[in-house]
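re: ur question from earlier - yeah i can do the single chain one, its not a big deal. heres the input i used so u can compare w yours
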Amino acid sequence: MSVQGQCGYTGYTGYTQLWVSFTILLWTNVEGNHAPEIVRSYDSYRVYRSIPETEEAQDALDIEIKLKEGQCEFMKEAHKLGLPSDFMCHNSAAEEVLNRVKKAGLKVETMIENVGSLVREGEEEHRRLNRQADTINWDNYQRYDTIIPWMEQLAADNPSFVTLTDMGRSHEDRKILMLKVGRSPRGSQTRAIWVDGGIHAREWIAVATATFLLDKIVEVFKTNDTSTCDTQSVQSVDWYMAPLLNPDGYEYSHTSDRMWRKNRSPPPAGSSCYGTDLNRNWDVIGFGAGVTSSNPCAETYKGTARNSEPETKAISETILKYKSNIRIYLTFHSYGQYWLTSWGYKTELPVDNEKLVSLGRQAVDAIQCVTPSRSYTIGSAGAIFYIAGGASDDYAKAAAEIPYSFTVELPDSGRYGFLLPANQIQTVGEELWAATGVLAREAARHNTGPDPAREEEKREDRKLGLE
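and the output i got, formated as tokens:
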């Protein structure tokens, strides 16, 4: 997530312009075509954390990072006082930034001493595990060429309850797939839950968690497991699972730039910078508001227009097709351990805030039954972090009128950040699996059709001049 980590929400600086200590020219294979790739090194970067307690301190931190744009960027920025903001700086700029921040009264701690070392450790572990496995697993982060055939095979092997939808193609012509898992026990009135991940390329744990849940859900249906209330609840609804929304960016983060966030759209006229932030590109109220950018080189570049990206267009059209049945929209990001509710386009709480927070709290309680020490902050994205328009969670609730919309910023809390080791995939997966029963029970009891709170929310927006 990140300028929030945002996973749903992230830094606003021009990440693609970060000064790089060195580059290596490699040849990599993308969809069978050999092409030169530049691999970015992060050996001279550290990640720091500061927790502003006053608005003045928060403003001072913002100013200092902006002054060093190109050498520093926010990894996760919280605008709610008392919550941590993480930023990455090249060593050539770090001392000056830290001195100025400390003079403003802010305490700073180092979270990651050498980002490059963590990247290399992950690469070495990935290579080692790949030598030991010949199929999809959750001991390692999987690539596009493993995930997509696996999804296709799940549909082929389980035609009675798994349906494959090819939602569309990315800029580089990769598939964007969704699987419907379920037997629609109430026919056209069967409630459903949508789960997706990977809209931000570097957030690998989001993709891994979504595929982990997909595997678990398919197994429950396949075995007709009714041994617990949770497994019964899982089978009472349909599941729309789309674990890899940004396949081009995801692959690029594996081959060329581990910290890449955006998709790989070609540079617009007058620019040499690739990529649009897909979580700023949705055609929804608030598009372009807050922490978004019109600069193609910025991390939060919103694109040339609403829904300008083929990925956003394909996914949004699919959501609309099933909106009357989808009761809960769940999108995975990282990092920070936040269970975020609506809204992102404004700081005012939704009219049904109590309902949203209550379900979020129940889900987090279930997570903590697996890992008692795993704490999540629950609350509105705009109130906790900052306004950021054009995001998928706002689209789900405001445009598709889905009653519940959550962005889950997965672990960890900052020790590894986006570079969560692969040996933590299964733990995170089991934690979120524990929450599926809670979500399914609520989805199953909720009426189909438009969000009952939507019209009241529109009236509130009119009062704020946000139409």
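Residues 1-36 have pLDDT under 50 and may be disordered. not sure if urs matches, ping me
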